[in-house]
Each structure stands twice: as C-alpha cells, then as structure tokens.
Fold this protein.
Amino acid sequence: MQIHTLSRHNSLLLHFLSELRDTEIQKDSMRFRRNVERIGEIMAYEMSKTLLYSPIQIKTPLGTKDTYVIADKIVLVSVLRAGLTLHNGFLNYFDRAENGFIASYRKHKGNSNDFEIAIEYNALPSLENKTLILVDPMLATGQSLVDVCKKIIELSPPKKIHLACAIATPEGINNVTSNLPETCSLWIADIDKGLNEQKYIIPGLGDAGDLAYGSKL
C-alpha cells in the first residue's frame, strides 16, 4: 500500500494542524470545522496529482486552448459524524464528485476498554469503475476504517481506493496496511506517537466529532 504523509515537508498544513490541537483555539467550534475543512482541501490538491486526466480542447473568448480535466469518476465517502468536516474540504475541490455516507462507532463491552466496530447506516452510490475517496479525520486503531472499507468493497467494489485521515498512529497505519488491499493509497496529514489505554490518539486533539459539532449523550 502506498502511504503519503504530508507533514514531512513544512507547509501551511502544519499551521492548520497546530490550530486543531490547540485547546484554546478548539473552543471556537466554527474555526475547528474550518481548519479540518482546509486540511481536506490541501489533501485533495495533493491527491489530485495522482489521478487520471483526459486531454480536451476548450474555446476561450480569443481562441482555443489544449488542456486536461480529471478523468476519474470520484465518489467521496465520509465516516459519520466526524468525517463531515474533512469531507467538505475534499468536496470544495472535487466539486463534481458523487457522495456517500456511512456511520460507525466503537461499541464497548461493558466497562472495559475492549470494543468492536458497529456499522449501522450507509448511503452509497454505485462504485463500479469509480475512484473511492474514503475520509475519516482520526486513524487511531484503524479498525473502524478497515471495517468500513471492507463493507464498502462488499457492497460495491470501486476501481481505486484512496483513504484520507488528518491524524494517524503507527498502530492504525499497520492495521490498515495489513488488512486492506495493497492497491489502496493511504493519505495522512500527520502521524502521532501512539495510543493510550483507552485507544485514543496521543497527543492527538481530542474527540473530533465533539469539537466540530458538540458533545453527545
């Protein structure tokens, strides 16, 4: 599996990531959502360099111009609810993409830290001969992304799969690369040092869904 880590080079991406993590700036949920969206836009631009393009000739007011347009038929799918903000960033750039949504959550066993991934909702278009971009801001254990991706492949196998996460751990990356097809591409804005006992990312940024949309029961 090809892995793209965008934080390896200094760029505006690091500025937005630093604001995502800052506990003071996090108090402004609108700015948090916008920063995740901006990260999605940057990731979409970098990902666009690897897509297929077709030559076209367009007519301008003063002549014609030979150029290129994206040939891939893109479907953007986000893991609810935290994925919505990152999804919007990608959609700002891939504005003609089809869209899908799938819900998953950690279903804990009693009061322990052990959990399984529950998938209870999906709304997906056909992915036949299309390029799937599956977005989820936080790649912690990686199990949610693995289970969701396998479920999508089972329902409607795409031609190509790109996975996009804002923050990941080595454990999550290993899980994804070990359990998903090698033809997938994994895109990561930044990699953190690991997981705590509750399987949350350290240092991470907290609960992305709560920070974007408010706490839940």
Helices lie at 12-21, 29-48, 83-93, 143-155, 170-179, 208-213.
